[in-house]
Specification:
The chain has 9 helices and 11 strands. The longest helix has 23 residues. It has a single domain, classed as Rossmann fold, CATH 3.40.50.
Length: 312
């Protein structure tokens, strides 16, 4: 009596044999080598540092030996360079974070500063808002902090700028940086998102002397209660928003405080208001904008009732 093997039976035997040989307890289509899985798998988060050379459009990753050479060249016996990193938020649109980093690079002293951005969008955009914020806090924030420390232990100053869920990311990154370097730290929170039942007082809570945070927000409904962060200087931008756009206004405004004007064509001729009384806000509050500016920032009270920027 003869036995005929069906093609499907033969295929099943081959698949089981392949699994046994490779020692994998999963089917081939569960493997990272499966073409569709490579396509659907989110891109890993990457820290990019812009080439400080004038007019250069290159960006380095932490694996670049050229980047380490630049850092060593900038490092003196007293301290290393300053660092600025911009972090987008959940469901981020466009590459504003890269534009901001490059604009800051083109504005400041290139001999003493490095500017970059942390691209975790592909990971964040596959999650819900709360889940992305939790991932930012637990995973990506400490990971960014570790990458910064791996680049150098001698940063003299680190300025982290985050939007939405990215605010929790930079807050956690700052804790790692503070624990492993002597850098002064500046946190800039743009429209932070606080999930239900989270304690907003944990945002920006750092144990270091030379650290300060500023917080910029715009209320969608002006009568809503302002969002106050206990560990940041709070600034309300609600009354100066020129009109709607895909990006949150605090993000567009902060960009404008660097470049001097709004980047959207329809708002390009609108004035960029930044002052409350005699105090200017935005990029000018950073060490990159001047030592005296930063020294004054350190004197500004945190946990304050939000000051209101008025267009006049």
């Amino acid at each position: 009596m003869s036995t005929t093997h069906k093609p499907c039976s033969v295929l099943a035997v081959l698949l089981i044999s392949l699994m046994a040989q490779t020692g994998q307890a999963k089917w081939p289509w569960q493997s990272d080598r499966w073409p569709w899985n490579r396509l659907l798998k989110p891109k890993p988060a990457v820290l990019y540092i812009a080439d400080p050379a004038r007019d250069s459009k290159r960006a380095f990753t932490r694996q670049s030996s050229e980047l380490y050479a630049i850092i060593r060249k900038m490092t003196t016996a007293q301290a290393g360079p300053g660092l600025v990193i911009v972090v987008p938020g959940w469901k981020g649109k466009g590459d504003w974070y890269k534009t901001l980093a490059v604009n800051i690079k083109d504005t400041i002293d290139k001999d003493g500063w490095l500017c970059g951005w942390y691209d975790w969008r592909d990971q964040a955009n596959r999650l819900g808002h709360t889940e992305a914020t939790q991932a930012a806090r637990i995973t990506f924030g400490p990971s960014l902090g570790a990458e910064v420390v791996a680049l150098s232990h001698q940063w003299r100053h680190v300025h982290l700028i985050g939007l939405d869920s990215g605010c929790w990311l930079i807050s956690e990154a700052a804790k790692v940086i503070s624990a492993h370097t002597n850098a002064s730290i500046h946190l800039t929170f743009l429209e932070p998102y606080c999930p239900p039942f989270w304690r907003q007082e944990e945002l920006g809570q750092l144990d270091c002397n030379d650290c300060w945070a500023d917080h910029y927000f715009s209320r969608e409904i002006p009568t809503h209660q302002p969002f106050v962060l206990p560990h940041a200087h709070n600034v309300d931008l609600t009354t100066i928003e020129p009109g709607p756009a895909p990006l949150p206004f605090a993000c567009r405004w902060y960009l404008a405080t660097v470049s001097g004007r709004y980047l959207e064509q329809r708002y390009r001729d609108r004035p960029v208001f930044t002052t409350v009384g005699q105090i200017a806000y935005g990029f000018v509050r950073s060490l990159e904008a001047g030592k005296d500016n930063w020294a004054y920032s350190l004197k500004l009270k945190v946990g304050n009732e939000p000051v209101l920027v008025i267009g006049k």
